[in-house]
Structures are given as C-alpha cells and as structure tokens.
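Tokens as discussed.
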C-alpha cells in the first residue's frame, strides 16, 4: 500500500477526520475539520500562529480528546466525543518541534526503548533495527552519543528514527525544523523527503514553503481553527482562493 507517492482518490484512507472540533474552556480552537488522507500522501499544513494547527495534529494523533466529529485511523475509530482517544501504540509516529529525546539515553537506546518495552522486541533485533534506522537518517556513527552531544538537526533525525522504529503507518510532524538553525533544517527536510518518496503517509505542519511546494502532494491552509484551503501545492500557492491565504503567502513569500 505504500508503493505510490500520489495515491489515487480510491486509495484506502489511512486517516480520516470528519467534522473534527476541539475547544479549550468553551473556546473553539479546531472547527469542523474534514481531512481524509489516503495512503502514501504527504500533506503540508500551513497557516498563521494560533490557527489551531498543533491542536489539530494532536487530535489526529489521539493525544487530545475531541468535542465533535470523529477521527478514524486505518478504518478504526481513533477519537470521538465523550471518550478517551484510542492509542495505536506507535502505528502513528509523532515528531515535535522540540525533539524530546530522553536525555539520559544514547541515540541507540532512545530508538530501541519503545520497540523493546511496547512491542517486546529482543535486544539484538531492536539494536539491529535501530542501527539500520540511524543509517537511514545519516547518523550511524552517532549511535552511542547522548542527546547533549548531538546538534539540533542530529537530535531531530534521531527523534524521527525513534518514531520509525515502531514501524508507523502514518507520520505526523509539528514544525519539525522550526527550532533548528538553517544549516540543520536541510538535513531534516531531506530525511522527510526520503520518507515521502518511499511512500510514507505524512501530515506535517511546516513553515518551509519549498518543502510544501516541492515535496508535499497536498497543501492545507488553516485560519482561525478552520481549513480554508485544500489542494495540490501548485494550486494553493499560485491560485489561493481565500483572502487570508493570499495575505499569508504574500507575507511569507515576499511576493
Ligand atoms: N492546552 C491549551 N489550553 C488552552 N488553550 C490552548 C491550548 N493549546 C492551544 N491553545 C490555544 O488554541 C489556539 C490554537 O493553538 P495552536 O493549536 O497551538 O495553534 P498553531 O499551532 O496553529 O499555532 C491558540 O489560541 C492557543 O492559545
Ligand atoms: Mg503550533
């Protein structure tokens, strides 16, 4: 199922949010969001600060309860109002702006922890898998380094490898490069691009317009809790229909 980058419309949906709503203390923050993501698609979520992008992503990850609508993952209910969201134990990988590595564990130990604890993978197998993942993110020689010995970009690549170690069917990224210096941003985006090209299903909040334009199959623009624009990158960038999208793109692209 992960062999195409641009999935046809009939492709099975890995993720499906319908009428998703989330409020904090009665204040709606995510409003009536419909988002169906077929297998193999890369979706870039753009929008101004405070638009509700992170909140939406956490709802899609099952990290927050929702007040209306529903979220399904691989056809199974992930979240609905009035119940605790279901955890899919690593089948949904999440990478945050702050890398959140365990500071007292090496790169290798960070990556093997969940497979060993949650999946019961044996040490040798978990370490072999982790080493292969470190090679994939370009860090095989850093396996025994602690997070403080790694640059931000290296830490973020370890965080991606850690999520991949659980063999996720969906990867969610929340501004994965926003805390990085520009020289490290590129290496993290390269890892994400490889993942996309290998057919991973991805939803990423990002301010990297080049990534959204070149790598994403689809761009979603959020304002005030709502998705106001949803289409392929070229269409959203060159022919935005929403006034706020136009303003945002003008500001950020300086056009
Ligand atoms: N845990 C929370 N409690 C209360 N309000 C929150 C919480 N998290 C986010 N918000 C509010 O929800 C709105 C959307 O925030 P967020 O999802 O972080 O937006 P974005 O990621 O687009 O910048 C903001 O007004 C923010 O203050
Ligand atoms: Mg955010």
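Sequence:
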């Amino acid at each position: 199922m992960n062999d195409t980058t641009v999935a046809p419309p009939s492709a099975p949906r890995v993720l499906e949010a319908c009428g998703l709503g989330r409020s904090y203390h009665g204040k709606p923050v995510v409003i009536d969001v419909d988002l169906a993501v077929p297998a193999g698609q890369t979706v870039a979520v753009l929008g101004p600060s405070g638009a509700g992008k992170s909140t939406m992503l956490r709802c899609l990850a099952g990290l927050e309860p929702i007040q209306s609508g529903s979220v399904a993952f691989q056809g199974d209910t992930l979240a609905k109002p009035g119940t605790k969201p279901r955890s899919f134990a690593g089948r949904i990988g999440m990478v945050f702006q702050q890398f959140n590595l365990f500071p007292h564990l090496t790169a290798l130990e960070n990556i093997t922890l969940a497979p060993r604890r949650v999946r019961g993978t044996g040490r040798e197998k978990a370490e072999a898998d982790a080493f292969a993942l470190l090679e994939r993110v370009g860090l095989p020689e850093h396996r025994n380094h602690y997070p403080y010995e790694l640059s931000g970009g290296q830490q973020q690549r370890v965080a991606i490898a850690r999520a991949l170690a659980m063999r996720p069917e969906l990867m969610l990224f929340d501004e994965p490069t926003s805390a990085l210096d520009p020289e490290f941003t590129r290496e993290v985006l390269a890892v994400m691009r490889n993942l996309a090209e290998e057919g991973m299903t991805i939803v990423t909040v990002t301010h990297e317009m080049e990534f959204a334009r070149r790598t994403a199959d689809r761009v979603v623009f959020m304002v005030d809790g709502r998705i106001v624009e949803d289409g392929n990158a070229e269409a959203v960038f060159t022919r935005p229909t929403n006034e706020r999208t136009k303003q945002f793109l003008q500001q950020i692209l300086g056009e």
